[in-house]
Amino acid sequence: MTADQGHDDLLIRADAAMKAAQWTVAIGYLRQLQTVGAGAEVDNALGICLARSGDPASAIRAFAMASHKVPGNAEFRFNLATAQKTAGDLAAAQATFRALLAIAPEHINGWFNLGNTCLQLGQADAAVEAYEQAFRLRPDWAELCRNRAIALRESGRYEAALAAARERLADNPGDLALVRVIAVSLDRLGRSGEAADILAASPECADIDLFAELSLNAGQTGQALAALAEAYRNTGDSVWAIRKLLAHPPVVAGVDEVVDLRSRFDENLKALRTGGTEIADPLAAGLGPAFYPGYHGEDERERQIGLSALYRSLCPGLNHVSASLLGAGSRPERLRVCFVSRHLVSHTIGQLQRGFIAGLDRRRFEVHVVGFAAPKDPVAQQIAGSADHFHIASPDIAGACQTIESLKPDIIVYPDIGMEPLTYFLAHARLAPVQCAAWGHPLTTGIDSIDYFISGAEFEAENPTGHYSEKLFCLSGPATVYQRPAIQRVFSPEELGLDPARRSYFCGQSLFKMQPDFDALLAGILRADEQGEVLLVEGGHASWSGLLRERFARDIPDVASRIRFLPRLGYDAFLSLTGKADVLLDTTQWSGGNTALESIALGQPMVMLPGRFMRGRISAGMYRVCGVTETICDTPEAYIRTAVRLAGDRSWRSEIQSRVRNGAGRLFERAECLRELERFFDDAYGSAS
User: Fold this and answer.
1) 3-state class of 252 per DSSP?
2) How many domains does the chain have?
């Protein structure tokens, strides 16, 4: 047999094995062909067989070899990108799909899969662009139309998502993914009740969790609780019982509802502690911390402890202890400090922590940052660049635990436990000798594997240790190394929608911070100042504003028309409004933090009524550091009088503004806080070892 005959024979045998799905046999023949200098077609066929046999890494190498030999072959590039995507290397897959489309711009599967990859990467806008190209080529492809609608929703283009989903649903009324797109889009457009009705009218959708969320956003708490209770009765699955425990409307209807919510939480928590079904992965099950009850202004310590204990009992996977901690070791030359958060980006948490991350003494500390996505915005990039090491962890409990554990940290700082589910659950593992929470989310965690809570001495009331499940450590001054904010573009009063005939009282806090007791303060101000107007910012969901409007119309009807909601603002517009409003108002039970620092940087006083707990005292603490206490009030009546005087007495307001500007330097980029934190890390590690 000649060499050519042997080559042809191997090709025939490989082809027959592939047709019979005998992948291992085909791989053997194709590898023999590679040894005699086979071309790119053999490499590509080998890649297909390797991918089908479950060896994506080897498949990638084979497809890459084929693409290298024939760079202009679209099929080879597509197969390479698909293998990279299957292997979980989404960034590489995205780059390869783009390279494919550069040589084959009409490749519909390339555009479709690029869109899918972008969506998996959380790049909704890029996904929409890719899907639009595919839609141009084939507008009747059902899966494409569904994914395009999902991407439009994820990118915040809710009207477009609604139209796209409804158009496709008319041809395929059984597409449950499109029903969900319609429901979520309606919710985000402030039509939460209508959204819940859409789901209720599609029982085959069976998305009880989403139905409950939409019902809560619509203020229909009873409807949400009934659906969750029925799901628990039908399944006996503890997941539904915990979802019912955590169910809470973002904006409460009044004091009576707060009392009912707290009573129900306590009763349900007590019942759940008697036993339940095991939960393998609470994050995947859609569970998380008790976020909203902390805004009520009551003592949350025992509730937080109870919830954490419940999770520990039902989710044994949370109780992981790093093997590296089991043996005693000597103190390292540099302590390895690891900051872990989803929010080390252009977010309050990123703003509060970046000075610590950049400034820790590198002779004594090795600084690691663990995030869950590539740094994109300027703050995230600054943080990643200033750390000794930046790590992207998988956004799941097991994967993130593995990443953190591999770093063998001496100290872990979770700046915002309780703000979102992933780090809340991660904090239940023991991955370092010292584990700390910080005041980015100013509420005790209740988690017994968190050793310390890092707070600020100026924020705390007298004898605060009883408010915490952790040991309390307080920094002095502003308790942060904060960079002074700067406005890139100043917006005019006209652009901001300020009425020149009105005195403006601006509260820039999230709407769920506005508990029912705050309504009386707003009413008192507006009754005392007939030319006054309260300005609030629309909520993260449009329906939240609607719920608050309803509460104002019911409880303070005589002044409700002078409470105006502004559209959500960009950063420069928000700072501009902060600087131009006549008076800034702080919320009471859960005060501002970042907003107080921004207000001081702009030389603006804020009217404050500190609450019982640290979370309601942060703004007042910042102004005390600044040396301005005249607008810190001790009664609701004083709050109202101070706000009205500040708006009407321009001379006094100017005097206070001048003092705020003069004292502002005490709050920004304070190295003293950094040195205190370093000493604390040394002492805490010494106590643990």
Assistant:
1) coil
2) 4
How far apart are the C-alpha atoms of 344 and 370, rounded to whole Å? Answer: 9
217 to 228, 480, 547: CA distances (angstroms): 15, 34, 8
pLDDT band at 204 (very low <50, low <70, confident <90, very high): low
User: Residue 285 falls within a domain, yes or no?
Assistant: no
The pLDDT tens digits for 519-570 are 999 999 999 999 999 999 998 788 899 999 999 999 999 999 999 999 988 8
Which CATH number is 343's domain given? 3.40.50.11380
Distance between CA atoms of residues 451 and 469, nearest Å: 9
Residue linked to tokens 């890139």? 488
3 state DSSP class of 147: helix
Give domain status of residue 13, yes or no. yes
Residue-range definition of the domain harbouring residue 214: 190-271
Give pTM, 2 decimals: 0.86
SS3 414: strand
Rounded Cα gap, residues 26 and 258, in angstroms: 67
* CA 128 to the chain's CA centroid: 22
Strand order in the sheet with 503-506: 563-566, 532-537, 503-506, 583-585, 606-607
Phi, psi for residue 32 in degrees, rounded to 5: -60, -40
The side-by-side arrangement of strands in the sheet containing 365-371 is 389-392, 365-371, 335-340, 411-414, 434-438, 452-456, 471-475
Pairwise CA distance, residues 585 & 369, whole Å: 35
